[in-house]
C-alpha cells in the first residue's frame, strides 16, 4: 500500500527520468512506424480518393493508438486509488475523469496528484506537511465531485490528527454542501458521517460510528481500527484498546497508525 504511494510520489517528482524517456521513445517509435506503414500502403493505391481515405483512416488509427499509450502512462498514476483511497473503484473513477472525445486532459490531473501527495504524507504521519499541501491547493478549481470529496475528507483527517476540531467541522459542512451527481450521494454521506464521528470521538460513549461500520478497503479498515483504539483509550476501555492495537500490529506497513499501535503495546 504505502510502497505504491511512494513509487507514485517519486515517479511524479521526476525521480525516474529514464522511465519517462523510455515511454516517450515508445510513443515516438509506435507513431513513426505507423506513419511509415500508412505511407507504404498508400503508395500501392493508384486512385487518389481511395489513397486519401487510407491516409485519413491511418491518421485516425495513429491518433487513437497514441492516446491509448497516454492512458497507459496515466493509469500507472491512477492505480494508487486502489491502494489508498477507500470507496472508489479505479475503473469507474477513470471513466469519470475521461473526456467524452477520448483525450485525457493531463493538465487537469495536477490536483489529483497533489491529493496523492497529501495521502502519502498523511499515511507517514507527516500531518503538517499534508496540511501545507492542502492549503496550497484551491478547492474551488477541483472540477470533479470525487476530487472535492477527497480534498475535504483528507483535510478533515489531517485536522483531526492536529486536534483542530473546528477544521473538522468546517470540512464536514463543506462536504454536506456539495451539489453532486446522484451516483456520488452515497460517498458524500459516508464521508460526512465519518467526519461527524471524528468530531465526537473523545466523548465517552460505549459504541461509535467506527464500531458499527466496516471499511470498504484495507486502508479504510485500518483507519477505523485506529479510531476504535483512540476511542477505547478515551473511554478507559483498556482491553478494547489492546485488542485494536493487536490487530494493527499484524500489518506490515509503515503507516503512522500501526507505529502508534506498536508503541502502545511496547509500554504494556
Describe the structure.
- With 268 residues, the protein is mainly alpha-helical.
- It has three domains: 1-78, no CATH class; 106-199, Serine Threonine Protein Phosphatase 5, Tetratricopeptide repeat, CATH 1.25.40; 202-268.
- The chain has 14 helices and no strands.
- The chain has helices spanning 2-12, 17-43, 48-78, 80-84, 90-97, 110-124, 127-136, 145-161, 165-177, 185-199, 209-212, 218-234, 238-249, 256-266.
- Helix 1 (2-12) packs across helix 6 (110-124) and helix 6 (110-124) packs antiparallel against helix 7.
- It is elongated and about 90 Å long.
Summarize the structure.
The chain is mainly α and 268 residues long. The protein has helices at residues 2-12, 17-43, 48-78, 80-84, 90-97, 110-124, 127-136, 145-161, 165-177, 185-199, 209-212, 218-234, 238-249, 256-266.
Dominant shape? elongated
**What's the CATH topology name of the largest domain?**
Serine Threonine Protein Phosphatase 5, Tetratricopeptide repeat
Order of helices and strands: HHHHHHHHHHHHHH
Q: Please identify the top-level CATH class of the largest domain.
A: Mainly Alpha
Mean pLDDT: 71
Radius of gyration: 24 Å
Annotate the secondary structure layout.
Layout: H1 2-12, H2 17-43, H3 48-78, H4 80-84, H5 90-97, H6 110-124, H7 127-136, H8 145-161, H9 165-177, H10 185-199, H11 209-212, H12 218-234, H13 238-249, H14 256-266
Which short descriptors sum up this protein?
single chain, 268 residues, mainly alpha, Serine Threonine Protein Phosphatase 5, Tetratricopeptide repeat
Amino acid at each position: 500500500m504505502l510502497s505504491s504511494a511512494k513509487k507514485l510520489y517519486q515517479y511524479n517528482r521526476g525521480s525516474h527520468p529514464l522511465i519517462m524517456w523510455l515511454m516517450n521513445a515508445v510513443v515516438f517509435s509506435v507513431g513513426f512506424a505507423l506513419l511509415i506503414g500508412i505511407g507504404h500502403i498508400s503508395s500501392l493505391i493508384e486512385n487518389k480518393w481511395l489513397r486519401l481515405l487510407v491516409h485519413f483512416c491511418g491518421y485516425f488509427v495513429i491518433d487513437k493508438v497514441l492516446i491509448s499509450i497516454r492512458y497507459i502512462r496515466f493509469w500507472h498514476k491512477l492505480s494508487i486509488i486502489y491502494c489508498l483511497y477507500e470507496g472508489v473503484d479505479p475503473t469507474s473513477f477513470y471513466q469519470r475523469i475521461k473526456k467524452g472525445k477520448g483525450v485525457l486532459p493531463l493538465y487537469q490531473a495536477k490536483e489529483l496528484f497533489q491529493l496523492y501527495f497529501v495521502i502519502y504524507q498523511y499515511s507517514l504521519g507527516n500531518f503538517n506537511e499534508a496540511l501545507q499541501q492542502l492549503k496550497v491547493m484551491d478547492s474551488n478549481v477541483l472540477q470533479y465531485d470525487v476530487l472535492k470529496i477527497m480534498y475535504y475528507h483528507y483535510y478533515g483527517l489531517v485536522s483531526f490528527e492536529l486536534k483542530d476540531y473546528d477544521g473538522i467541522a468546517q470540512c464536514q459542512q463543506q462536504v454536506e454542501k456539495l451539489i453532486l451527481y446522484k451516483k456520488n450521494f452515497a460517498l458524500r454521506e459516508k464521508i460526512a458521517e465519518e467526519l461527524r464521528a471524528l468530531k465526537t470521538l473523545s466523548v465517552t460513549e460505549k459504541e461509535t460510528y467506527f464500531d458499527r461500520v466496516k471499511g470498504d478497503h484495507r486502508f479504510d479498515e485500518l483507519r477505523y481500527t485506529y479510531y476504535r483504539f483512540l476511542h477505547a483509550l478515551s473511554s478507559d476501555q483498556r482491553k478494547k484498546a489492546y485488542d485494536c492495537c493487536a490487530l494493527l500490529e499484524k500489518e506490515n506497513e509503515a503507516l503512522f497508525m500501526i507505529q502508534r499501535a506498536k508503541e502502545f503495546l511496547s509500554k504494556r
